[in-house]
Amino acid sequence: MSTDTLDPTATPRLAVPTRVLLGGGAVAGPLFVLLIVAQALTRDGFDAARHPLSMLSLGEHGWIQTANFLVCGVLVLASAAGLRRVLAPGSAGRAWGTALIAVYGASLVWAGVFPTDPMDGFPAGTPAGAGEVSWHGMLHNLAPVGMGLALSAACLVFARRFAREGRRGWTIYSVAAVAVYLVLGLAAFPAGEYRLMLAGGAAIWTWAAMLSLMFLIERGDRPSS
């Protein structure tokens, strides 16, 4: 384990809350994906191939996805604070890496606060086609852009860090996660297949969760934790 990984100045009084913060980040990615998949399979009229996942926040049971955005966003923000605590001051990733993870979390919260617009027959009774874009729909559309850019950059920041530490597996994983996200995300639009975008998102969301889990486990090896 690299001496640059953990902050040697961390004190026991921070151990429990830091574990909780990192644990929240480890839970956020899988929870977000599982709730989306569960809803996509059970919501009447929702077609994951042609409806963006954000549309799950609409209709009678839309509160579930809204809560998913908000809760997972808060958990990710918590993980950014936890990562900042365990990374040594001045180390690679502590400034930019944690800030980018925080932007990812804030984007999830933003998506929950500003709902997208009905379109293409969902929810039930919505006319076919693109439909009109409201002011909150325009604001919502900023969320996936901010989330995607922030997480892609975070992957590369931490990939550089892991490469310097000689962690080949984590370096490859970090680069692969952003590559899968970008390739599938870009392929989704010409193919008219939003499930590709969801699969790409799952790859990078779970990367962020695994990052928190890794630091949580490493911190558990220390006497002060």
Number of domains: 1
How would you spell out the order of helices and strands? HHHHHHH
Amount of beta strand: under 5%
Mean pLDDT: 88
The strand count comes to 0
State the end-to-end distance.
Answer: 16 Å
Biggest sheet: strands, sense, closure?
none
Contiguous runs where pLDDT drops below 50 for at least 5 residues: 10-16, 221-225
**Portion in helices:** 55-70%
Secondary-structure content class: mainly alpha
- Could you say which overall geometry the principal axes of the C-alpha atoms support? elongated
The number of helices is: 7
Integer-rounded radius of gyration: 18 Å
Outline of this structure?
The protein is mostly helical and about 220 residues long. It has helices at about 15-40, 60-85, 95-115, 135-140, 140-165, 170-190, 195-220.
Task: Provide key terms for this protein.
68% helix, disordered C terminus, 225 residues, elongated, 7 helices, mainly alpha
Q: Explain this structure to me?
A:
The structure is a single chain. The model is unreliable at 10-16 and 221-225 (pLDDT under 50). α2 packs parallel to α7 (194-220) and α6 (168-191) packs antiparallel against α7 (194-220). The chain has one domain (12-220). The longest helix is centred in the N-terminal third of the chain and has 28 residues, at 15-42. The protein is mostly helical and 225 residues long. The protein has seven helices and no strands. The protein starts with 14 loop residues before the first helix and ends in a 5-residue tail after the last helix.
List the helices and strands and how they pair.
Elements: H1 15-42, H2 62-86, H3 96-113, H4 135-140, H5 142-165, H6 168-191, H7 194-220
